[in-house]
Amino acid sequence: MAIAPNLYEHTLVRYTDPLHATELLRQYRPYLEMIPSMRRPQESLIPIPLPIARIQVPAATTTNPRPQVKSVIVPCDLVFVMCDPAWKVTTDIELLVFIHRPGESFTELLTRWRQSQVLLSRSYSWEMPLQHRDVFSEGANRQFPLFVLFPETLALIKRGLRAARLPFVIDTTILKEQPSQATKLMTGSSESAE
Fold first, then answer.
1. Is 193's pLDDT higher than 50?
2. Bridge partner list, 170
3. How far is 24 from 79, CA to CA, in rounded Å?
4. How far is residue 175 from each of residues 58, 98, 103, 121, 178, measured CA to CA in Å?
5. Of 13 and 189, more confident
6. What is the pLDDT of residues 88-147, one digit of tens each?
């Protein structure tokens, strides 16, 4: 069964909320343990949907010795920036979340992770959400991927991620929450779901 675009959208919206983001990470415990403070998840975990990074590009000529800064969209769906809630500074760990998109093959999904690795191999900082503009957001030294798949995701993709030793979770939260809405989302019904 193909993944409906509405299901992808629902998942992206859901995990943009820090409280739901921690629910996602509960499915992969090593990442849950990276959250600086579970008592203050909204201050410890900053989700950035469809993130933009400001990447330093080395100066191409000697006339301008200062590095240039270029804004690029990183091809992950979400980045979870870990933040020390007391000091308002990011930690050395970031989680890049890749939600399986409708019609996306294993190669396309894996390529998005590889492109993200290349982009973030230079000095960078994140374009932070407005409510977190005061957080110092220089890039981390360690980025970890998490792939979010669905029950409808092809077994080939699951086998490929397993073989590449890349962590993934199967998101079934919509099925547990509202079975009637889940049917609409999975069939791609044109009715809007609140």
1. no
2. 149
3. 13
4. 48, 20, 21, 38, 6
5. 13
6. 777 788 999 999 999 999 999 999 999 999 999 988 989 888 777 766 667 667 899 999
Gap between the Cα atoms of 183 and 53, Å rounded: 36
Q: Taking a C-beta distance cutoff of 8 angstroms, is the pair 127, 51 a contact?
A: yes
CB proximity list for 105: less than 8 A, separation 6 or greater: 157
What would you report as the CA-atom Rg of the chain, rounded to the nearest whole angstrom?
A: 18
Q: Which pTM value belongs to this model? A: 0.84
Chain centroid offset of residue 168 CA: 12
DSSP string, the chain: -PPPHHHHHHHHHHTTSHHHHHHHHHTSHHHHTT-S-TTSHHHHEEEEES-EEEEEE--SSTT--SPEEEEEE-SSSEEEEEEETTTTEEEEEEEEEEEPPTT--HHHHHHHHHHHHHHTTS-EEE---GGGTTSB-BPPSEEEEEEEE-TTS-HHHHHHHHHTT--EEE--HHHHH-HHHHHHHHHT-SS---
